[in-house]
Amino acid sequence: MRIVFTAWAVLAAAAAPLAGCVTAVEVPLPLLAFTGAGCTDTPDLGTAISLTPEKERVSHYVTGAVTADGACLNGEAGATPYVVFALPADHADKTMTVGGVLEATRILSPRVTLLASDGTLTRTFAAEDYLYRGALYSVQFRPREDEAFILVTTDAGRVGQRYDSIVVGTNTTSTYAAGAYVSWTAGTDDAQSRIFSYAGMAQVTVYDSDTDETD
């Protein structure tokens, strides 16, 4: 009996054990509706994510997930999920950029408010204060003396709106020919589209103008 293996059969057999090793990466989709269950009238400040680094740095960032099944607040415009961040005690020399991260298909539609240590509202921001700053749709501010927490909820009025952008970059290709390496660079345009969502990643970037811990 003669058995003949073709090149295709050999490759298929070699690839078969690897097929089960492929892991699909799930891309979070925009959340366009939120009803909420068990929402409260005030945020739980005990769950606040600390913005104080282990060591003073010129800049650092902290993220927190705003999810469909996480904490939520009742409000005049309906229920909304939220996340809370705790300001550093020495925040007089800090500048904060706070907002929603531009993810693969979505952007958290952020509503940023500042709270005192007892949870009372100290400051809100107007629509024109929200801008695209790098990978964040955000507001920027310096905390005041009486402020202790940053509350990030969702602006329902923006949910469902689309943000289209083009990322311009370069791509370098190299090859070996005639005894020498040859490289060439070409421009690239990557079109991206994202939708404002009830859920997503909130991020706070902290800029410190005085990192001398001896002060």
Q: What is shown here, in short?
A:
With 215 residues, this protein is mainly β. It has one helix spanning 7-19, and strands at 49-50, 59-66, 72-73, 80-81, 83-86, 94-101, 106-108, 110-115, 121-123, 131-133, 136-141, 149-154, 162-177, 180-197, 200-208.
Secondary-structure element order, as H and E?
Answer: HEEEEEEEEEEEEEEE
Distance between the termini: 87 Å
Average pLDDT for all residues? 83
CATH C-level category of the domain at 40-164 and 193-208: Mainly Beta
Structure description:
The chain has 215 residues and is mostly beta strands. It has a domain at 40-164 and 193-208: Jelly Rolls, CATH 2.60.120. It is built from 1 helix and 15 strands. It has one helix spanning 7-19; strands at 49-50, 59-66, 72-73, 80-81, 83-86, 94-101, 106-108, 110-115, 121-123, 131-133, 136-141, 149-154, 162-177, 180-197, 200-208. The strands form 4 sheets. Strands 1-5-12-8-9 form a 5-stranded mixed sheet, with no helix packed on it. It has a 5-stranded antiparallel sheet with strand order 2-15-6-11-10, with no helix packed on it.
